[in-house]
Amino acid sequence: MSLAAPPPPARLHAASDLDAGRLEVPGAVATDAGGHSPTNADSPSLRSDLITLTKPRIVVMVLVTAAVAAVVAAGRNLDLVVLLHTLLGTAMVGASAGTMNQIWERRIDCRMRRTRRRPLPDGRISTWAASLYCAALGVIGTSYLAWFAGPLPALFGVATWLTYVVIYTPMKTRTEWNTTVGAVSGALPMMIGYTAAGGGIADARGWLLVAVLVAWQYPHFMAIAWMYRREYGEAGFQMTPVVDPSGRNAAIQSVVGAIVLVGVLLAIIVLTTTGAAAWMLCGAMLLASQGLVRGSIRFAIEKEDTAARRMMHASLIQLPLAMAVLVLAALLA
């Protein structure tokens, strides 16, 4: 039995085809922009499609932040074998959540240029196959975490899956508050890594790590939502720039998020190390974060795509630098 799904209804592709500057005629041979007929070699492989379903970039970010949280919790006493098991289980749970998100939004994805070539809206993988894949990843990943990392990390894995799939995903078409829920969902994996490495559920540093990603996601996602506000609006997503086209709310959330992010990062350093090292690392953190703060302020003033793109790039530079400083603080403690 093939994993491929039947071709999506033509009406789901109509708007996208017009946007691409061409109109498909029933019965005609499809061609690319150069007038050439596509071949099987042009289509992504099944392996590539299965990876795409999991939203691999998000999974990689989740794994990096979970690993950093584990280092902050254990410092130089970190058990690398436990960390490896934790990351493997977390990757499967995250991949399951990403897959279910694409299953849920498969019809909406047909309406957006940036998502219409995903495996489900393009008909390369069927919904039942994607659902089976999602279930297998989720069950195996959660069981793996519970067995090798402990029940608490597994519990946070389940919480991550539920907030992302059951709450955040349907909220995207209902309210602009979806960004806040999505930020929490994206930050909870910090507690998977933190508790797997021996951190407690009541530890202040663990929840401050969660707060780091919650705050970071505001300037990062507001930049994306602003640049793609028209596509989001046409697809029915209730993102902040869609609900408030003036950009005022997106600007406020970006600036506040960037400033809160710096404060939380400095608090973690103070709780992790002391003395001259703390002062030095706080200075390094301010240096690592100043580009994002300036970028968010510039976006708030200009409210243009160029400023949003710069803010997004600044967020992608700031996060790994900030994580590196946190790791250094934990190793010096």
Radius of gyration, Cα only, in angstroms? 21 Å
CATH architecture designation of the largest domain: Orthogonal Bundle
Number of self-contained structural domains: 2
Classified by CATH, the class of the largest domain is Mainly Alpha
Q: Which series of helices and strands comes N to C? A: HHHHHHHHHHHHHHH
Structural class: mainly alpha
- Which stretches are low in confidence, meaning pLDDT under 50 for 5 or more residues running? 1-41
Please state the overall shape, judged from the principal axes of the Cα atoms.
flat
Full CATH superfamily name of the largest domain: UbiA prenyltransferase
DSSP strand content: under 5%
Give a description of the structure.
The chain has 333 residues and is mainly alpha-helical. The chain folds into 2 domains: 1-202, UbiA prenyltransferase (Tetracycline Repressor, domain 2), CATH 1.10.357; 203-333, Four Helix Bundle (Hemerythrin (Met), subunit A). It has 15 helices and no strands. α7 packs antiparallel against α9. The model is unreliable at 1-41 (pLDDT under 50).
State the main characteristics.
333 residues; mainly alpha; Tetracycline Repressor, domain 2; Four Helix Bundle (Hemerythrin (Met), subunit A); 2 domains
Question: Would you summarize the structure shown here?
Answer:
The protein has about 325 residues and is mostly helical. It has two domains: about 1-200, UbiA prenyltransferase (Tetracycline Repressor, domain 2); about 205-333, Four Helix Bundle (Hemerythrin (Met), subunit A) (Up-down Bundle).
